[in-house]
Design goal:
The structure is a single chain. The protein is of the alpha/beta class. It contains 16 helices and 10 strands. It has 2 domains: about 200 residues, P-loop containing nucleotide triphosphate hydrolases (Rossmann fold), CATH 3.40.50; about 120 residues, no CATH class. A 6-stranded mixed β-sheet has the order 2-3-1-4-5-6, sandwiched between helices. The protein has a two-stranded parallel ribbon with strand order 7-10. α6 runs parallel beside α8. The chain binds guanosine-5'-triphosphate and magnesium ion. Magnesium ion binds next to α3. InterPro entries: Ciliary_GTPase, P-loop_NTPase, Small_GTPase_ARF/SAR. This is ADP ribosylation factor like GTPase 13B. Keywords: GTP-binding, Magnesium, Metal-binding, Nucleotide-binding.
């Protein structure tokens, strides 16, 4: 009987006092933003918070102008995690390098529960810039009203401003009254402590920030969730718009390519000829040859464009000598080839014919008022200008002015 009552008593007691583990409050996941100008000391502070302290090496660095061990400027962001009390804390340490990078800060506002703003309290020249930066952050709709901890870092350095002075310089009182947010400024240094100890000001500052968040946790949580969702939807929308734009451009390009391929089937042949497993030197030689062919074609196109613009039918011109006349402006007027259109057989023939004519009939035709066209060169003759008649023909290597080659 006594045994039964003892057993009952035990189950009664275990029901009343379950093991300690069951009593523990679940960890509250919070995200904090660590912002500030470049070189303010954010990454260093984040490391201290995580317990990745630089140890004894730090002692050696104290007193130097700048500690440079193992700290480089943050490109993008770094993320640290640690547990403090019943908070599972994630800190986004985002690089402050330049105004360009600072425009990316706003993408992190929505998911943060609070802000840690780090300033270099010894860099008096950049206080105004820091003030502008913190103003801009706290005025953002997704950030206003959230608790802010300002860490005035590098207090170990000579000439570092005091907490009171910094509150004044940054006009923090005005700002926090405007934005109705809780704010605390703590002077600190990441170099003052070694081992597992961290600067008490940093420790107290974080404790204060987390307790502010804890006091208003559920309101902040629902705000963060709502803002994050809205941001996700917005970003998703922008992503879809971008994808649609890319698809549209691709469709247009494919249509253009199809049109071109139906008009010029010989270009399709080029691609299908490529053997991916050929030795590199052969491929390079082939490419060189292809390029030369292309150059020749472009030269012909140039002639064709010219012929189309100035003499629509060269053969007719040749058959009707009285109409053979080029403008003097041909030589000087710049014109361009807008797209690569391989010449037709007929055009090549006509150009060939024209070159032949140049060779054979040049002397006879010299007295007529038309130009001689050779590859890459146009030479005008004007019978009315006796000076030109006596002028020597420029050599075939003389380049044509105003010719824009458009490479495929
Ligand atoms: N003397 C002194 N130097 C510090 C302190 N905290 C950081 N530094 C040094 O300041 C320099 C910049 O520190 P970072 O932590 O990289 O600065 P940051 O704000 O992360 O800079 P970005 O990543 O460019 O935005 C480093 O050389 C640090 O060692 C400090 O409390 N005292
Ligand atoms: Mg950094």
């Amino acid at each position: 009987m006594a045994g039964i009552s003892r057993c009952k008593l035990f189950s009664f007691l275990t029901a009343c006092f379950p093991c300690k583990k069951n009593y523990q409050v679940p960890l509250r996941k919070v995200t904090l933003l660590m912002l500030g100008l470049e070189n303010a000391g954010k990454t260093d502070t984040a490391r201290v918070l995580k317990g990745e302290h630089k140890g004894h090496a730090v002692q050696e660095e104290v007193g130097r102008e700048e500690s440079s061990i193992d700290v480089t400027t943050t490109i993008g962001f770094s993320r640290i995690n640690f547990i403090r009390g019943n908070f599972d804390v994630t800190i986004f340490d985002i690089g402050g390098g330049g105004k360009g990078i600072r425009t990316l800060w706003k993408y992190y506002y929505a998911e943060s529960y609070g802000l840690i703003f780090v300033i270099d309290s010894s860099d008096v020249n950049r206080l105004e810039e820091s003030k502008e930066a913190i103003n801009e952050i706290l005025k953002h709709p997704t950030m206003s009203g959230k608790p802010v901890l300002v860490l005035a870092d590098k207090q170990d350095k000579e000439g570092a401003l005091s907490e009171t002075c910094l509150v004044k310089c940054l006009s923090l009182d005005t700002l926090i009254n405007e934005q109705k947010c809780l704010c605390q400024l703590k002077g600190c240094s990441t170099l003052l402590f070694t081992g597992k100890k961290i600067d008490k000001s940093i420790k107290r500052g974080i404790f204060w920030l987390l307790s502010c968040i804890g006091n208003d946790f559920y309101t902040l949580k629902s705000r963060v969730e709502r803002d994050t969702k809205a941001q996700q939807i917005f970003e998703e929308m922008k992503k879809r718009e971008r994808a649609e734009r890319v698809r549209q451009l691709r469709r247009e390009r494919e249509e253009r390519e199809k049109e071109y391929a139906t008009e010029h089937p010989e270009f399709l042949r080029c691609d299908s000829d490529i053997d991916l497993f050929k030795p590199t030197d052969i491929v390079l030689r082939e490419n060189e040859r292809r390029k030369q062919r292309m150059d020749k074609d472009i030269d012909r196109i140039f002639l064709r464009t010219h012929i189309e613009q100035k003499k629509p039918d060269i053969q007719n011109q040749f058959s009707n000598a009285s109409e053979r006349k080029f403008d003097d402006s041909i030589c000087t007027e710049p014109y361009s080839v807008l797209s690569y259109i391989p010449p037709t057989e007929k055009e090549i023939d006509s150009v060939q014919q024209l070159s032949d004519c140049e060779d054979s009939d040049f002397n006879e035709k010299k007295n007529d008022t038309f130009g001689v066209i050779a590859c890459n060169q146009i030479v005008p003759h004007n019978i009315s200008n006796p000076d030109l008649e006596t002028q020597e023909m420029p050599g075939p290597s003389h380049p044509i002015h105003g010719f824009h080659r458009i490479q495929k």
